[in-house]
Design goal:
It is a single chain. This protein is of the alpha+beta class. The chain contains 15 helices and 10 strands. The chain has a 5-stranded antiparallel beta sheet. α5 runs antiparallel to α6. The longest helix has 33 residues.
Length: 451
Amino acid sequence: MALHEDLLDTTPDAPLGTLVGVWHSLLAQADNVLGTLWRPWVGYQVLIALAIFAVAHVLRMGLAPRLHAWMRAREGWPMWRIRWLVVLHKRLRSIIFVLLIWLVIAAMREVTWNSRTYQLAIIANLATAWLIVALTTRLIANPLLRKTVRYGAWIWVTLRILGLTDAFERLLDNIAFSIGTMRISALLVVQAILILGVLWVGARFLSRTVRNRITGNEDISPSMQVLAVKVMQLLFYGLAVFIGLKAIGIDLTGLAVLSGAIGVGLGFGLQKVVSNLVSGVILLLDKSIKPGDVISLGDTFGWINSLGARYVSITTRDGKEYLIPNEDLITGQVVNWSHSNDFVRLDIYFGTAYADNPHTVRKIAIEAAMAVPRVLQQRPAVCHIVGFGDSSVDYILRFWISDPTGGLTNIRGNVYLALWDAFAEHGISIPFPQREVKVLPESTLQTRPLK
């Protein structure tokens, strides 16, 4: 099945002649293959392979519904096992075909010459290799990368089994162009895609494994977990690209000057981006904020959902998600309600009439606040007089909570309602400004007649 050496004896300086020679060789080889099909046992083997495929199709039609019903009954199984069953269900016909054709080859070699199973062995090897590639590439999560690796592997194993690897490599190597002293061929591009794809998948797998181990370690703080995961991802992906470029023979020293110039330009053009990146590293190192903290920044109040390289995601009580640049958290004033602990003290103000006993008012206010859910019992509430107003005695009521993520406005409202009910029960009045108009005896009140 190999191409003739005389047709491949060309130099890289004549890629057009190589292409024409390889095209004529492929046409001649295709004509030779069609000619061999007229031989009795070659045609018989092709018919046997088609018959095996038909049998596999019929068996698949009968087994697929039963396998599907059996899969639906496995409710308690892990999701990864169910996913693999789905993959096997989709490839059921190929699996049956591979098993049957190898059984037929084994049986034929026992009763006849091995030469009469030569074409069947090629078909079986191709079917087995294609099935293995289809199953193993399911491990790649990215759809585009999975398809690229799958089709590339299919082409490579096909050429390998048919003995056309060397000829195809020479063909791709002759399709090339030069940039300065660097020669870029189609073979180099294909090798780069395959090597970088494999290394990228490996880096992705390692980063996910390390991330799961780091996030599962309770001894590491959340901010350090995020920093460690980011550093490991940068290290793995950077090594994958570096090793891939070195493996395909690209000299990276020539890119040093160009990368330096590009770095200077990017430094001036991306000052804010770099500032946010550096600020993000500082936030992770000093542990001033971490995922789960409740913070206030200006009018924004919420809890930190995640720490990114450029921004911090904050989710508010109304479901909005704000992306705050890291630089704003470094340079601005931030209230971290749960920096060292989750205890938060809240203050509310109210006033009562001068006729009410302030000692009784303070006692009733404390009891009302302590009866509200979410108010901590181990940290008693306090109530103090803060002034004598124009129409009321002014008080401040202070109480503690330990779950600021549950909201602040709602707990204040609940305490106000408890004060209202308690004051109404004990006859304590809440004054409000009133105005009285007195008409002096010597004055005349003029009224305008209604129309």
